[in-house]
Amino acid sequence: MRGARPRPRGIQVIARAAQAMRVLGEARGMSLSDVASAVGLARSTTHRIIVALEREGFVASNGPGGYRLGPSVLLLAEACKVAAIQDLHPYLIRLSQQVHETVDLSILAGESMYFVDQVTAPRRLRAVSAIGVSFPLHCTANGKAVLAAMPPDAVRSLLPARLERLTPATCTSRTSLEKELIEVRRVGIATDREEHTAGICAVGACVKLGTGDLLAISIPLPAGRFYGRENELAAILRKHRSEIVARFSGAFVSS
């Protein structure tokens, strides 16, 4: 473009290195020639970038002439995850203050949701779970919100063959659960109607980190304060989730 100022060389190098890492992240292993072709750079230029990244642990050898992402990327991903959880905390506070209920933040790890943050409501009767406690996917609002953000094949491979019944309201049919997830994908909000714990209901929404990690924001509350108010809670949670995705574009992506 005429009149456009060229980017400083240092910025160009960083951009090219990021592009090479992005390409490697999309494949289990690539040759130097394949990386050069994918990023549109000369093989010699790509080699210098790869060597520099390998020296810092961001790229590792993947056999003769092949490369993959290195262990330093995992450290960055973990740092991004911690930062994202910290960045979300003020939003959890605002949400809790608006609905006057407890608000939880959980993350998918393996086949369970783990609570990583919580803002408790100043009520005598409230729903509270300890940080670090795990919950199943099939019968919780946060778990179903995350499942709905995944491709159907991934959901089928993640769920156990037998869905455990925890309360009389727990859905133990994989077919019925898959139909429910279709609706969750449509509306963007999952619900728990005393399916995990008798007397406790919840609404939940998923946010996906740029790292690929799946988080869920949920509002658990006593059943007596849930029924008749579920649409209001869902609308408020949906609005807050949209604000988070818009505010942290890049760190969070639409699921």
Task: Provide an overview of this structure.
- With about 260 residues, the protein is α+β, with helices and mostly antiparallel strands.
- The chain has two domains: about 10-70, Winged helix-like DNA-binding domain superfamily/Winged helix DNA-binding domain (Arc Repressor Mutant, subunit A); about 75-255, Beta-Lactamase (2-Layer Sandwich).
- The chain is built from nine helices and ten strands.
- Strands 4, 5, 6, 7, 8, 9 and 10 form a seven-stranded antiparallel beta sheet that branches.
- It is elongated and about 65 Å long.
Helix content: 40-55%
Domain tally: 2
The first-level CATH class name of the largest domain = Alpha Beta
Order of helices and strands: HEHHEEHEEEHHHEEEHHE
> How many runs of DSSP E, i.e. beta strands?
10
SSE map:
Layout: H1 9-25, E1 30-31, H2 32-39, H3 43-55, E2 59-61, E3 66-69, H4 71-99, E4 103-109, E5 112-119, E6 134-135, H5 141-148, H6 152-158, H7 174-187, E7 190-193, E8 200-209, E9 214-222, H8 223-226, H9 230-247, E10 252-253
Antiparallel strand pairs: 1-3, 2-3, 4-5, 4-9, 5-6, 7-8, 8-9, 8-10
Helix pairs in contact: 1-2, 1-3, 2-3, 4-9, 5-7
Task: Name the features.
2 domains, 255 residues
Summarize the structure in short:
This protein is of the alpha+beta class.
